[in-house]
Prior knowledge:
The structure holds 2 protein chains of 2 kinds. Chain A is mainly alpha-helical.
Amino acid sequence: MYRGREGQWAFVLHRLSGVALALYLLLHVLDISLVMYGPEGPFNAFLAFYHQWPFRVGLLMVIVAVIYHAFNGLRIIIMDFTDWGVKVQGPLWYGVLAVTAVIGIPVLWKILPEIFGGA
Amino acid sequence: MQVNVKIKRFNPEADKRPYWAEYQLEARPTDRVLDVLNEIKWEMDGSLSYRRSCAHGICGSDAMLINGVNRLACKILVKDLGADIRVEPIRGLTVQKDLIVDMEPFFDAYKAVLPFFINDDPAPAAERYQSPEDREIFDDTTKCILCAACTTSCPVFWTNGRYLGPAAIVNAHRFIFDSRDQGADERLQVLNQPNGLWRCRTAYNCTEACPRDIPITKVIEEVKRELLWRRA
Ligand code: FES
């Protein structure tokens, strides 16, 4: 493992969350589109399948990934379009992590009990 | 002090794959890793192969992956690493033997950006004047020693060896922002290729690795903006 610093991990997380979201979006569009086969079609069966807890946990990760990817995207825009962004990229990344936590934790707080409460 | 040195070795004539060789020896805290390698080669195992020339951080021969980070063996001291030292060849280039890699792809990328002065105007009688302010703009990028520590620390380069890489962009920057030079368009055209400038994903490993303290990511971003605004 190369011992890179903030920038390397920001990049790795951005890439992982990006690829995960792209795959998720594909899946999402595919199974939402099943709705066109009507109520008797496969849509409801798929939906029930996705209500199992591993997929729900996956959905939580999607939420966290969206938050991280969005805010790190802003960090990248700042680095790309200002001449000071590069200098503060490290602190900016900690800011991105903090914002991800600040928004992500209440969301988990709200949704986790629903998942394991079986609702 | 007693140091424990692990070196990733590979002899294409004898080994199927690289292996870790271990050496225990005495070293002074103020010794450089290059001194330690020399001690091993001269006193313990003459078959150990690596490049070095100046031993003073200026020829760019001895970039290595040392304790997980790219550095020059002749600039990093034992006391900054501790008793356990791990040395590997830089990544993304083919290992020829032990710590020696094939640098040709690296130099090909360097040559691709036309790293030389271009100006076809007849030379003026005295000099091609440049103000100190204009000279300052590309001062950082005149310092590159082509050691490849940056390019081979780049995660994008590890997975795509055809990416021109930070060193080539640094040397393009050196001339693109030189007020006396007229080749900027040609260079930017090269950098605008699919494996050029836009492959940079700002992972900053290059900036951390540069033994000359060139703010590499900063200058890459400057070239990106230059290309963007020129096209716009
Ligand atoms: S030996 Fe010349 S840079 Fe290290």
